[in-house]
Structures are given as C-alpha cells and as structure tokens.
Amino acid sequence: MNKNKLKIKKMLFTVIVLTLCAGVFYLIKPYLPRAFGTTTGNFMNGQWTAELDGEFYFFERYDDEEGLYKMDREGKVIKISNQKGINLNVVGDYLYFQKSNAVGEEDQIVKMKKDGSESQILFEGDIYLYLVVIDQKMYFGYKPDNEDRSSIYSMTTDGKNLKKTNLREDLTLQLLLNPKMNLKDMIFPYGSGYDGYSMQIKDNYCYLYKDSEGWDYGLSPL
Amino acid sequence: MDYPPYDLYRTKKKGTEGKFLADRVTAFNVAEDGYLYYAQLNEDTDSVTISKMNLETEEYEQLVEIATDGEDILWLDVNADKIYIAIERKDSYLLNTDGTGLIKTSDLLEQIEN
C-alpha cells in the first residue's frame, strides 16, 4: 500500500514538474533567439536579397548577368550561382530560394551553401509565391495536383516532413516572423484585397495602404 | 485595390483610424533598424524619391531620386545597411541606408568583370 502511495506521489510530482516546465517554456519561447531567413519587410518586397553577419546576397534580375551574388563585408562582389530565383532566405550556413524556371517547368525550392556549392533541390511542385525559413523549418505556399487551391505547407530544411499547416495564407507567414507580437486587438484587413504584398505587420503595428476607396475593406480581426 | 501610388498608414487597435505616414507611396519596408523606407512617385518627372522615416519621431529624410520612365512598381528590400531597389522591367539599384553609394546593380557587376 505504502509502495503504491509512493508511486502515485512520484507520478504526481513528475506530472507537476513537466507541466511547470512546459508552462515556462511556453512563456519564454517568443523571447528565445531564433534564426529567421528573411524579414517581414522583405517578405512583402519579393525577398530579392538577404543578409547574415554582414554578408549580403542578392539576385540580379534584368541583366545578362542574371544569377545570385554575394557581397562580403568589404564590399567585394562575387557570383555564386547562375540560378535565377526569388524568395531568398539565409539561415546558418545555407541559402534557400524559389528557383525561377522556364514556363511549363515545375517550381523548385533550392538549398545551397553560402558559397554556392552543394546546390540541391528540396522540393518540386506548384509553389505559390512565398518562402519563409525559420530555424530548421520552412514554410511555403503549395498547391498539390489534387487540390483546388494552395495552402501553406511546412517542411524541415533537410527536405523531409512535408506537412499541410493550418496557417491562413501569406499574411500569417508575416506573423511567424513576429513572434513577440500580441495578436489581441490587432486588426487585419483580411481577405479584402490586401495580401502579404500590400501590408506589413511589424512590432505590433500594421502598415497598410489606403486607396481611393478608403478604409471600407471589411477590416476584421484575425 | 487600385494601382499605386497609395497613401500609407499605420494602425494598431481594432476600431481606430490609422495614422497617416506618407502619400504617393509605391513601395515600403519597415526595416529591422526601426526606420520606414519608402518610395514616393513623382508623376511630373517620371521618378521616385526614396526616403526614410524614424518611426519614433516621425522625422523623415529624402535619400535619393531615381528615374523610372513610367514604371512605377517597385520592390524595396532592406538588409542591415543596404537598400535594394528594383523597378519593374527596368533596373535594380543598391543604396546605403544613409543615402550614399547609389549604384545600378548592372554597373556593379560590370566592375566585377573588369
């Protein structure tokens, strides 16, 4: 009997400790350092560039010299890849981007080392416009052949664990890039002509355009 | 929405009117340094003015003016001390966030070749 009581006490103690640990982790999680491959400002501007530790990466878009370039801390520029792309992210030792392929070819998510080596295709399919890499996970819009519309999918940065998320379209990816934001009372002109390219969410504020039709866009809480 | 330019506002709470920040805006980026970078269309001169605004004090500073030849859709990436400005179907530029060092990326790449 005493043994059973002791066992139950131990179990209760373990549950309480685990619950407390989980609670503490939940509270401090937004404040833990995280690696964001891009910013909300660049997210709504095509992510043609990315920067990490003073090294700057950019796609040349229009010239004969299309490709991916790196500018080091001293301003020296080198071409690191002939691949054309958008939605550039840099996390740790790697660059991630959506490769721009010829019409009719499948879209691809490419991962390569920051010097352009070890380029590999992580994913191919009907990828929709955006790509955000946070820590070891990437998020992107994707429309499988058997679905009518695109959704946000996540995948680990090794190209595994593809999952459909319950995130709602592109604006929610800006929310992922704002982990400290308090969503309560925030307004979002969601589904009203605004999208992740015409408004920016940053530090508890929403920056948005007001066009000739005024505010009447059905502003609504998320 | 209509095509740009637009008036740019910021807002926070549900049910409150947004605060006006700038007019004739064709692209903007609230960067990690706490500044708003934005491009304003100058229809008379077929150009855009790139400016930065301190979002705490709302003081703003015009950085450069760039010819657009009627192309008014811009991308404005900001990373650390660099602004990347792309004018659709035209040129892209790099500019330091203090307004110095404006260069077409094509010219920059030409320098690499040579």
What does this structure look like?
- Chain A has 2 domains: 1-32; 35-177, Tricorn protease N-terminal domain (Neuraminidase).
- Chain A is 18% helix and 37% strand.
- Chain A has 3 helices and 16 strands.
- Chain A has helices spanning 2-28, 40-43, 169-176; strands at residues 49-52, 55-60, 67-71, 77-81, 85-91, 94-99, 107-113, 120-125, 127-134, 137-142, 151-156, 163-164, 187-188, 199-202, 205-210, 220-221.
- A 4-stranded antiparallel sheet of chain A has the order 1-2-3-4, with no helix packed on it. In chain A, strands 5-6-7-8 form a 4-stranded antiparallel sheet, with no helix packed on it.
- In chain A, a hairpin with a 6-residue loop joins strand 7 and strand 8 (120-125).
- Chain A is elongated and about 80 Å long.
- Chain A starts with a helix and ends with a strand.
- Chain B has 114 residues and is mostly beta strands.
- Chain B has one domain: TolB, C-terminal domain (Neuraminidase).
- Helix content of chain B is 8%, strand content 54%.
- Chain B has 1 helix and 9 strands, in the order βββββββββα.
- Chain B has one helix at residues 105-113, and strands at 6-11, 19-30, 35-42, 47-54, 60-67, 74-79, 82-87, 92-96, 103-104.
- The mean pLDDT of chain B is 87.
- The chains are: A alpha+beta (222), B mainly beta (114).
- Strand 15 of chain A pairs antiparallel with strand 1 (6-11) of chain B.
Provide a quick synopsis of the model.
Chain A has three helices and 16 strands. Chain A is α+β, with helices and mostly antiparallel strands.
